[in-house]
Amino acid sequence: MRATKALLLAAIVVAAFPFGAGTAQAAGTKLTTLYSFCVDLQHKVCRDGDTPLSRLLPVGSALYGTTFVGGEFAHGVVYRIGADGNRHSAHDFCADANCPDGAQPGNYLTLGPDGAIYGTAQRGGVNDGGLIYRISPGGTFSPVHRFCVGDPTCQDGARPVAVVFDKNGNMFGTTGFAGTKGGGTVFEISSGGQFSTLYQFCSQTDCGDGIQPGALTIGNDGNLYGTAQAGGAHQGGIIFTLTTGGGGFTVLYAFCAAADCADGQEPAPSLVQGSDGFFYGTTTLGGAARFGTVFKLVASGQIDTLHTFCTNEYCDDGSTPTDGLSLAPDGSLYGAASEGGHFFHGVVFRVTSTHAYAVIQDFCAEQGCFDGAGPMAAPVMAGGVLVGSTSAGGDKFNVGSVYSLEP
């Protein structure tokens, strides 16, 4: 049943979160669809965006995110859902021939120390190497660094993943491909604007140091932590750390150390440090059922598997998470599995460090998946509720939605 706008506004006040649209029910939770994409369809292109894959970034009373394709020029958008509940375009990619402003934006946005929003585009730029961009508080879009400039071999890397900032305003990030060894890179752009490469993946025999790194996390100790999707001693991906100066690269864990990769395989491209100081994440594959895991890094060379997905033949608990976890103020960890669940179209779940796992939302509970389907990114907490996106479903043309969820 759909709620009236008056009832939704009342729910918004109770939730202290200024967004609203349609509603779907799940046990113990209430999902509100904030926006369904493809409201603006023209010439078979969803001008408002198509296939949102990114985590949302709360900034003040607004939410920012990206869609992989769609937009005015069909190469993806950065969008904003304002306090008025309406969707606004922050940037439509590929405004000019050859896409010097980028194309196919990445899945992670970062709020910089200057109040601007930073992100990556995986394609476009120069030699199709991708770029880092900045959207000022006033809404001005500008490239920060284009990869492969003057170098078709892309020794500085290609396909940037995400960026983070340290307390001194220095930017750090990764590229998923290329570099001098072909496995991707870790880079720094200093607060003064100087670019340098800190590490080249696949520098070790048989890529024991990993290939295709994901997003970085700056730990409480000031060092960089991350995952690489493949490579490692057992070719199942790794967890790594290195200093912000580029030294001390260490593989903390190599997946597929257990028989049949029961410890997980292909770690998702993000880690989060819990309130207990340990790092948490997910794997897309591996585990006892081979449909992914949730893990805790307890020490170098040791992980604790908190949950193995697809614990029964119907995968009611979800399967195949493609993103890591987000941390709530109470120390709980939230994530999304893109498949499985009661309706076979993905779930939102909560997990604790003590192995307590619960599905809090099954997608496609509504006929036609009007409540969304296929969540590819972890929801984040904003204003006391979870907010996230789905890559499919919605009440328009099955190309995705943005939701809020009262856990």
What labels would you give this structure?
407 residues; mainly beta; five-stranded antiparallel beta sheet; 1 helix; 3% helix; 43% strand; globular
Describe the structure.
With 407 residues, the chain is an all-beta fold. Among the domains are: 37-146; 255-395, no CATH class. The protein has one helix and 34 strands. The chain has a five-stranded antiparallel sheet, with helices on one face. The radius of gyration is 20 Å and the shape is globular. The model is unreliable at 1-26 (pLDDT under 50).
Strand order of the largest sheet: 1-2-34-33-32
Please mark out the parts with pLDDT under 50 across 5 or more consecutive residues, or reply none: 1-26
Helix content: under 10%
State the separation between the terminal residues, measured CA to CA: 19 Å
**What structural class should be given to the helix and strand makeup?**
mainly beta
